[in-house]
Amino acid sequence: MYVFNMGTQLSIDELLNSEEHHADPYPLWKRMRHEAPVFFDKKLNAWLLTRYEDCVEAFSNHTDFSNQLYSKTLGVVFGPTMLDKDGHEHVVQRRIVAPEFVGKRFEPYYEAIERNARNLINEFPDDGVVDLVNSFTTRLPVNVIVDMLGMDQSDHERFHDWYTTMMAGLSVKDLLESQFSSEKQNLGVLAHQQLAEYVAPIIEDRKSCPVGDLISKIVHAEAEGQKLTLTEIQAFISLLLVAGGETTDKGIANMWTQLLLNPEQLDAVLDDQDLFDAAFSEMMRHSPPVPGQLRYAVNEVTFSGVTIPANQAVYIQLASANNDETVFSDPRSFKIDRDDLHLSKERKMGHHGDEGRYGHLGFGLGKHFCLGYEMARVEAVMGSTLLCEKMKNPRLAPGADTAFIMKSGTRSPKEVLIEYDQA
User: Fold this and answer.
1) Beta strand pairing call for 312-316 and 46-49
2) Angle between the 373-390 and 276-286 helix axes, to the nearest 10 degrees?
3) Exposed, middle or buried, 56 (CB in 10 Å: 0-12/13-18/19+)?
4) How far apart are alpha carbons 283 and 277 in whole angstroms?
5) Which residues are 396's β-sheet partners?
6) Which residue of 82, 150, 366, 396 could cross-link 400, Cys pair, CB 3.0 to 4.6 Å?
């Protein structure tokens, strides 16, 4: 039950675009869940959903909602992908690539995760201060993907540059607020074109001479007699690089920031590193790296008594849903021992469970559930365990800036400065 009263205050419209909201969106989202859970943002030109129940319903409704708007963000930068497709076409393309990212099929890539994590950690000073973002989180996911694809390790820097440039060109906010392409978007298009040209001969070679890498597997994979075309494989590689890199990059940074800000939680994880699994789940609930997902209402649809007309953009504010106090107790407290959250696993097909536990919505829900959810978790947990081998008594460095910032549709700290002792 929602009961809320803030007295005299600025309007929601005024606060949505304020510096205060950008710095910490959770207080306004709380107010919206109580006063205006379905709200039309005039500047964004989209409807915002903020309640857990409404967001779950929207994620699960594939009849009235479409992913077609992604063709104007991701699609502009690197062409059509499964993300902007609906219905059977989406299902087929997902079945072609999805098996390589879960379970036994994904386990062979564990070695690449461990090797690349160790290589980065070995560059840390023996003791002192390290910025985890610059030295580890932005590098690990991209390096792992490069190795999974079968590229030479000397390509790490090249792919990192493409990744950051493409990511900067993918702003949902810019799409909804403007009809004109930005300079960042144009640079993102160029980066994809360069990547596509680079991998094209490799893709062609793998058709006749497959090896054990991910490109070979994707080239020869099929579902219902269909295979991905050259253009579709090129687009998928860019999607993997951006989506797989960004979620893991920001996820590790967010998890460590929350642990460092909650020393008792950090101590528990350092004493029992198996708890990194629970810490990852709580991070995805408390501070998900991607706070919302965009959908397009092709039909009229109603949430919390408010009817959204057909042909409208709808922003599923999953970070708000994850902090709905009617679902999660004391939601703005970071607690790795929660009894109301499904820990150490993802709930991709449902949000309810036994004993009153609910699933976080950080990876979405249903048939568009994030393809790389297992990869993100393994990299975060394995990488963090290896970090603990290097960093003894890790703590926030003096003067560390723990502020979270919104950038290109993600929310995370700009840096994670950790002071530690020699192992």
Assistant:
1) parallel
2) 120
3) buried
4) 10
5) 418
6) 396
Q: Which residues span the domain enclosing 416? A: 12-421
Range with lowest mean pLDDT among 109-123, 344-358, 380-394: 344-358
- Which residue intervals of 240-372 are DSSP H helices? 245-261, 263-271, 276-286, 318-321
Residue 7 backbone zone (phi > 0: left; psi -120 to 50: alpha; other: beta): left
Query: pLDDT category, 31, cuts 50, 70, 90?
Result: very high
Distance CA 172, CA 69 (A): 9
Distance CA(409)–CA(215), nearest Å, equals 28
Q: In total, how many domains does the chain have?
A: 1
Q: What percent of the chain has pLDDT over 90?
A: 69
C-alpha 409/C-alpha 276 separation (Å) is 25
Q: What CATH number should be reported for the domain holding residue 81?
A: 1.10.630.10
Kindly report the pTM of this predicted structure: 0.92
Q: Which two tokens mark 226? A: 């269909």
pLDDT in the model for residue 246: 84
Nearest CA-CA partner of 124 in 392, 382, 396: 392
CA distances (Å), 241 to each of 31, 145, 236, 293, 305, in order? 36, 7, 8, 18, 40
Total number of residues shown for the chain = 423
